[in-house]
Design a protein that fits this description.
Helix content is about 20%, strand content about 35%. It is of the alpha+beta class and about 400 residues long. The protein has two domains: about 1-120, Beta Barrel (Cathepsin D, subunit A, domain 1); about 140-360, Cathepsin D, subunit A, domain 1 (Beta Barrel), CATH 2.40.70. Strands 1, 2, 3, 4 and 5 form a five-stranded antiparallel sheet that branches. A five-stranded antiparallel sheet has the order 7-6-20-21-8, with no helix packed on it. Strand 6 and strand 7 form a beta hairpin. The radius of gyration is 23 Å and the shape is globular. The protein starts with about 20 loop residues before the first strand and ends with a helix. InterPro entries: Aspartic_peptidase_A1, Aspartic_peptidase_AS, Pepsin-like_dom, PEPTIDASE_A1, Peptidase_aspartic_dom_sf. Belongs to the peptidase A1 family. One of its GO terms (molecular function) is aspartic-type endopeptidase activity. It comes from Blastocystis hominis.
């Protein structure tokens, strides 16, 4: 614990709409022996704790004859760094095959569905997040959380909430048109790119948009520091394409604002996948869409039909900065008339060639090297076997 795509969202009871409000009958949850929790995070904060079990039930259902659901969750006992004091632990919203440490447990979603399916409860949950508040909806599609249409995308990997990303743009500049698997992960703060793709993103921003605030300064946004420079009115939008669905993410979403006293600071929410995370899956083909993306959309996870729904957050979600899908804003009922910021300079031929090699050939190159090594080992073993007969 924690695993990638294990939700880290613990909403206040007042934010969970009836009839799917959670209640916790137990006052003292039971600690599971020898089950520890360690959470290292970007920018140095960390937390430690353990796994606990407690009972919970859903308010609003008539059947009270069955006992409450007993579920396993992570509790944060010790915090270091810039943790939000309201962060108490890991609720665990992933698929159950990731809920192992090493013993596998049912998630709260599995337990609630098993308990309440006969009462009409669906294996569906929705999330809308803002910088300060959020809403978790359980058991049905809550139309209050979305303005306008829900755009459905099939889940590609049964282990994660992953959907197929077909194009990624920064303003008017295409970063990639290759197909990647994008994992929707509410437990990740940032939008994390594979190393090769992040190198392209970094080069495009620094070489083609050098005059953007916080790009050429020292320190810059790429130094992993929060700066007292407001980039939200001058940086281009990010475009993430999922087939024919274009999600336009403004800088007010993919930058995170931090307030300290009377001062405000911003840090860029796009970074490369770190080695500690990359070891859990093939990081060269996966993008992690954390809160730097999720703050701009409402997400529905329809686990019964293996699909994910994206929509524009409604005003009910406490979200003032949000993404626009297919250049239509249902909250104003208007088409988006903005233009993407054009680059100040073009990339030279050698940089483009380098990007082509990075994205298309590195994975193939290492696969060929591995195949040659295996072939050499097999041939050597065959030679030894032939020599011993």
């Amino acid at each position: 614990m924690p695993d990638v795509s294990t939700g880290m969202f613990v909403p206040p009871p007042s934010a969970v709409p009836v009839p799917t409000a959670l209640s916790a009958p137990s006052t003292y949850p039971t600690e599971m022996a020898a089950r520890t929790l360690s959470i290292p995070l970007f920018l140095s904060p960390s937390a430690e704790g353990g796994l606990y079990q407690d009972s919970s039930s859903l308010l609003g259902y008539n059947d009270t004859s069955s006992p409450p659901v007993t579920t396993t969750f992570g509790v944060v006992a010790r915090e270091q760094g810039t943790w939000d004091g309201n962060t108490d632990g890991l609720l665990g919203l992933a698929y159950s095959n990731l809920y192992c440490s090493p013993t596998c447990h049912n998630t709260i979603l599995d337990d609630l569905y098993a308990r309440y399916a006969k009462d009409g409860y669906q294996d569906v949950f929705g999330l809308c997040l803002s910088e300060e508040k959020g809403i978790l909806s359980l058991g049905a599609l809550d139309s209050q959380l979305v303005a306008g249409e829900i755009y459905w995308i099939d889940v590609q990997d049964p282990a994660f909430y992953s959907i197929s990303l077909t194009k990624f743009r920064f303003g008017s500049v295409e970063i990639t048109s290759s197909r990647y698997q994008a994992i929707l992960d509410s437990g990740t703060t940032l939008l994390l790119l594979p190393t090769a793709l992040y190198t392209i993103f970094y080069t495009v921003v620094t070489q083609q948009y050098p005059s953007l605030p916080g790009v050429s300064s020292r320190p810059s946004f790429f130094d992993g520091q929060a700066l007292n420079i407001d980039p939200t009115s001058s940086w281009p939008d990010l475009h993430l394409h999922f087939g024919d669905i274009d999600v336009r993410v403004p800088p007010s979403v993919y930058f995170t604002k931090i307030k300290q006293g009377f001062f405000s600071y911003w840090y860029l929410g796009v970074y490369p996948v770190e080695a500690s995370v990359a070891s859990q899956f093939d990081a060269s083909r996966y993008i992690l869409l954390g809160d730097a993306f999720l703050r701009g959309v409402t997400v529905f996870h329809d686990r019964e039909n293996d699909r994910v729904g994206l929509g524009v957050p409604s005003s009910f979600c406490f979200v003032s900065n949000y993404a626009v899908i297919n250049d239509f804003d249902p909250r104003t009922n208007e088409n988006f008339n903005g233009t993407d910021i054009e680059p100040e300079a073009d990339l030279d031929f050698w940089l483009r060639l380098r990007f082509f090699f990075l994205e298309y050939f590195m994975e193939t190159f290492f696969a060929v090297i591995l195949a040659l090594c295996l072939c050499a080992c097999c041939c050597q073993e065959c030679g030894w076997a032939a020599g011993s007969t």
